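Re: the 353-residue chain
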Amino acid sequence: MASPTTIDHLGMDLLHNILARLSSIDFASADCVSRSWNHVCGRILCRPKLSSACSFNQSLQVAVEEVVNKVLSERIRPHFAIASVGTRFHIKFNIEEAHKLITAKLGSKVPLITNCSPGIIGRDVNSGEFKEASRAYGDTSITDEFDRSLVQERAKGGIMLTVGFLPGLKVKLIKLAKEDLTSQDARAYSKKFINDIREFSASISGCQSPAAIMMFSEPLQGVIDVMEKVDHAMSPETVIVGDYGYRFHSDTESLNNITATKERVSAVVALVFVMDRTKPLDPATALSSIANVSNHLRSFKQERTAAGDKREVFGGFIFTSYDRSDFRKPNVNSSPFLDNFPSATLGGILGGP
């Protein structure tokens, strides 16, 4: 008598078709069933992806629940995450609590940076409207009643969460502690911080300079010097961006370790992106580095269309100054990107000047 056919006997193509129809939660569960299922899920999730959302709910717990549910509503394997708590939230709630809530949802293995900033950029989970919300509430230079109500709406505060999936890249958080930066051996610790970045890159890609570095830092003496040294030590091809001057949290170990001390809190943290030489990116889905200027984006789009270029713009993340926000022109910072790539995911932070 023939043994009954089980799901383990399904052909890979049929299994691919079944798994591709699953919801994001069921897909995540299927990804953990076995090595073969994980391989098939990897074939389905083969393109880079960003998922981003904002919530302006005045309860931190509800806001976190909303943004996490939204970014995970589509199939994605989080390789990294960035959360920004804007305006009133980081006064009423501490960012450590926000970081803890998000880590509990995404898992402690996902590199996560949570910062507080004067404003956030992203799409509202409830209305679907794209918003730039900053702390300009109370600006006495704005006298028009309509403009003032617009400012007040945008100054309510909120939380932005962006999750990224980058097949072919490895992502790691590398940190420089406040205690080390302010010690007598600060120069040696800064050198070690840079060497840690280069060693991680070399171990994954064979090259000491990573593809990109996203840096966050607090406004401490010596931080700018460290950033300049990082820039000097890396190849010109390494893209370096970031946010300077606002509190952030990235230490997952301190969330579960009651003996962790504040002295070991990071002063600078680098989210390092490295090409994995064992999993090269398909050129058709390679990540394009483009300037966040409207005419450059437009030229890029036109040239790409005319030449039949198949490179994919799958999303973007903006770092900009809240001082550049003109409240009489909605979404002034994000409009250059949205006008050219309206269907691509976009998130961002309104940081310091």
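The two ends are 76 Å apart (CA to CA).
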